[in-house]
Structures are given as C-alpha cells and as structure tokens.
Write a structure and sequence with these properties.
six-stranded antiparallel sheet, alpha+beta, about 30% strand, 7 helices, two-stranded antiparallel sheet, about 250 residues
Length: about 250
C-alpha cells in the first residue's frame, strides 16, 4: 500500500467510526474493540488504523486510557475558568455525574515559581491538596491546590472532597474576589499522566489560577490538569453574573 493509499484508507476508517458514533450505535463511554480486532475488521495495518484513531482522538471523538484501550468520548463539559463555580454544581447543572477523590493533603516547601505566583518570601511553606475528579465515571481532571497555611489553619484535617469554596466561607469567613489565570496546552508527565491514565507526553490542558479574596489578598492558587477532550472553554466577557454558583 502506497502512502497515498494508506492516507485514504485511514480517512475512510475515521469516517466509518465517526458515522457509528454520530448515529448513536457507538454511545459515549462505549469501549471500542481492540486495535488488533479493528485492524482485521477494516482489513488494514495497525499503523494505518492508529492514524485513524489518533485523528479521531485529536477531534475529541474518542479517547484512550493507558492499558485499557479506546472509548467513545462523552460531550465536552462547558467550562468557564473566569468563574469560581462549585465544581460539583457546575457539572450536575449540565446533567452529568461527578466524583471527587483526595489523593494527598500535606504541607510542603513552596517552589520558587509558587513563591513568585503567591508573592511569598523564600523558603515559605504551603498546604498542598491533590485531588482527582471524574465526570460520568471517567477521570478528567487532576488538580493541585496550594493554600497559605496562616490563612487556613487546620484545613488539612477537614473533608476535602467537598467544595473548598464552601469550607473557606463556612470556617474562615472568606469568599473569592478576582482571579488571575493562564491556559496552557502541555503534555502529561509523571504523576499527572498516571492519575489521568494517559501515556507519557499525551496532550493535556493546564489551567493555572491565582485567587484573591474579597479584600484583594492572594489566598491560594490552583493547577488544573485536564484531559484535552474533556472540556470546552467558554468565556463571555459581557456576563455580569455567572451561569453557575460562585464556588469552587
């Protein structure tokens, strides 16, 4: 098979799988047959099949979990990082199921980058909370929260599967004011790749945010690592009130 023929064959395979998805025969979360079985089904090589699958993955139509195989991707979550939406409420408002798991909660030495972001002196310490979030049973988000210990004493002993925003308001009398955030396409490495069940170097989306309280004081920052096909970023600068409750 020539290169041109392989390209055409890959396009036909991509079209066939896409039609199965759009018709509803392959539904969100459905596991595709193994690559070997798909190669036999389409009478093609694994290389050509891989090209078709990777093209569908890039379009957000399917996704791969390391050592588990390929799955039909669910609709993307509509996500506006400009608002401090309660994650659970934001997801359930879009008729989706959500789970949050705490991976670790500890006090760590702040890196130079974090010291700069949070305007801290050298050798400062921070509370680090790592959480994993699932939508409809699928792992989509690994997040690190960094909190100033002097502002949140005792928080590491609390139930951190719930909204941090609610904890801030209930236990510390704090609410969010403005935020400063960056959105950066990057690659999954190390514990991020492992948590999101991705191969090393897989594309992800990093949303990094520094948060201020109602008095303009920096109180924490978040590093959100999203599967790139899980969300659709939508920001409307004309909105005065948020589409979801102002919680994280």
């Amino acid at each position: 098979m020539t290169t041109e023929q392989a390209f055409t064959h890959a396009a036909l395979i991509r079209q066939a799988i896409e039609q199965q998805i759009s018709s509803g025969l392959l539904r969100p979360g459905h596991k595709l047959p193994s690559e070997r079985d798909l190669s036999e089904l389409f009478a093609t090589t694994r290389i050509t099949l891989k090209e078709a699958l990777q093209a569908l993955e890039a379009e957000g139509k399917i996704y791969r979990e390391d050592r588990r195989g390929w799955f039909v991707a669910p609709p993307r979550l509509l996500y506006n990082p400009q608002y401090k939406s309660h994650f659970h409420q934001m997801v359930t408002a879009q008729q989706r199921q959500v789970e949050t798991a705490v991976l670790s909660a500890q006090t760590v030495l702040a890196t130079p980058a974090l010291c700069q972001e949070l305007e801290l002196p050298a050798l400062s310490r921070l509370h680090e909370i790592q959480r994993l979030r699932r939508i409809d049973g699928r792992v989509v988000l690994f997040v690190r929260h960094y909190l100033k210990p002097e502002i949140f004493p005792g928080i590491l002993a609390m139930d951190l599967t719930q909204s941090l925003t609610l904890i801030y308001e209930t236990h510390y009398g704090l609410s969010y004011g403005r935020s400063r955030f960056d959105i950066i396409p990057t690659a999954a490495r190390g514990e991020v790749a492992q948590a999101l069940m991705l191969g090393e170097g897989s594309p992800i989306l990093l949303i990094s945010r520094v948060n201020f309280d109602q008095n303009g004081r920096i109180i924490d920052c978040d590093q959100e690592y999203w599967r790139h096909d899980a969300i659709r970023i939508s920001i409307d600068s004309s909105l005065v009130t948020p589409p979801f409750p102002l919680e994280k």
